[in-house]
Amino acid sequence: MREHGSRLILRTNQFEPTIIQRAEGCWLQTTDSDRYLDMESGIWCCSLGHNHPMVSAAAVAQMGRIVHLGPAFLAQATIEAAEALSRLTGGRLNRVVFLSSGSEAMEMAINLVRQATGRQMLIGFDQGYLGAFGSAAEASGPTSTAKCMKVPTTDCLRCPVGATPTTCGEPCIDPARHLINQSAHEVAALVIEPILASAGVIIPPAGYMRKLGALAEEAGVLLVVDEVTTGLGRTGRWFAHQHYYLQPDVIVLSKALGNGFPIAAVLCSADLEAQVVEKGFRYTQSHQSDPFGCAIANEVLRVIAGEGLIEISEKVGEQFKKAISTLSADFPQVREVRGRGLMIGLEFADHDGRAAEDLARKAQVKLRERRVVVGLSRLHPVLRLLPPLIIGEGERILFLQALELALRDLRS
Ligand SMILES: Cc1ncc(COP(=O)(O)O)c(C=O)c1O
User: Fold this and answer.
1) Which single residue of 2, 83, 90, 256 has CA 20 to 30 Å from 368?
2) Pocket test for ligand 1, best of 198, 228, 232, 263 (most atoms within 8 A of CB)
3) Interval between CA 130 and ligand 1 midpoint (Å)
């Protein structure tokens, strides 16, 4: 392992002492012919695996045609990408803008609903993460801000009232109902992640989500669904809101859309577009709807459909979750294994006088020592797995072996 010049890179976070030379599929290759199994797809972006050959070929071909255009022009690749995404909504959302990152696109979505309704207030989940800056950051996390009121995330594992399956959702829906009914006149939108990856793979119950959607609709509050992490097959559906039969007014996508290349999309209806255009809405950014990213997105969408990755994510995800649960049953440190498709979380419990947070952190370190990369939630003691949807059986077995050894290490 060789020290590198990481001191030159602003310390926004801690870096590993090795550098990655290339990556392929689920693997990150270091300069030392050593490699890591990437169970996080970068940061949940490379759903087709790193360096997917068809995506790389499409990028090279587009690079030879046209990369970027000024705001007065559109290219065929951009139109095609908009058509492909709109088709995924059954044509209901048929206005699309492409940007570069999830945070930017969430910002744009919030901007749109505020302009359309003339209202400033948002309602969001108290454990949500919607972006790194601006209004999206303000609407993230438990702290109430002046511009975003919070509803419960329905964190069932920590249900404060011990609801049963029949009463499930009700203790959470009551405060949400109260908030929406009282404040609808000042609220632009309910802005939610359908499954919360950052919070620690929190999966709200379907009944709660359906009621929340219905309450917003009845009250005339728009619904913005942040599919930045969950979208395009990650949870076994094209969109995770389909698990709840929600009908969003705005959908935001990023991450998997570029398979690692920075591209994001905001989808809304022609009606919403008409409302904002009437109010003089204009927006220009250098890399808005650039053909290069759109050509990559087109290929990503073709590969997902062509290789049946939505179905694979659901089926393989279920098998993998079961295998992790079976293995973890021998380790009382693991409190719960949960997930949807290939978004899986392992939550730790306090054990033998050691705090769950400490156990989860140590498990992550032990896996990293075995060259396996997993995520760690900031809110809860949860290891996060969002591997490429193309993860093979051999790689899943390698992960299970490494996990078993890491969990054994926690005993010592
Ligand atoms: C649900 C969700 N929304 C928005 C974002 C922000 O996306 P980006 O990091 O591309 O700006 C993230 C990032 O992890 C996310 O998980």
Assistant:
1) 256
2) 228
3) 6
Residue nearest to atom 8 of ligand 1 (CA): 102
Dihedral sign for Cα atoms in the order 372, 378, 384, 387: negative
Strands in 334-340's sheet, in edge-to-edge order, are 334-340, 343-348, 382-385, 375-376
This model's pTM is above 0.85: yes
Instruction: Look at residue 49 in the predicted model and tell me its pLDDT.
Output: 98
- Whether 1 shows a pLDDT value over 80: the answer reads no
1 is a domain residue: no
Domain region containing 362: 6-51+310-409
CB 261 within 8 A of CB 293: yes
Cβ–Cβ < 8 Å for 81, 250: no
The CA distances from residue 379 to 11, 126, 189, 199, 276, in Å, are 22, 11, 25, 5, 36
Q: Please count the other Cβ atoms lying within 10 Å of the Cβ belonging to residue 209.
A: 23
Choose the final residue of a domain: 306, 338, 368. 306
Phi-psi region of 171 (alpha: psi -120 to 50; beta: other; left: phi over 0): alpha
Count the domains in the chain. 2
Q: Do the beta carbons of residue 197 and residue 227 sit within 8 Å? A: no
CA–CA dist 275, 270 (Å, integer)? 9
Question: Of 254, 276, 306, which marks where a domain is finished?
Answer: 306
Neighbour-count burial of 5, counting CB atoms closer than 10 A to its CB (0-12 exposed, 13-18 middle, 19+ buried): exposed
Is residue 112 within 8 A of residue 118, CB to CB? The reply is no
Tell me the CA–centroid distance for residue 174 and ligand 1, in Å: 28
| Residue 143 and residue 264 in one domain | yes
User: Across the beta sheet with 264-268, what order do the strands follow?
Assistant: 95-99, 264-268, 250-253, 222-226, 187-192, 121-125, 148-151
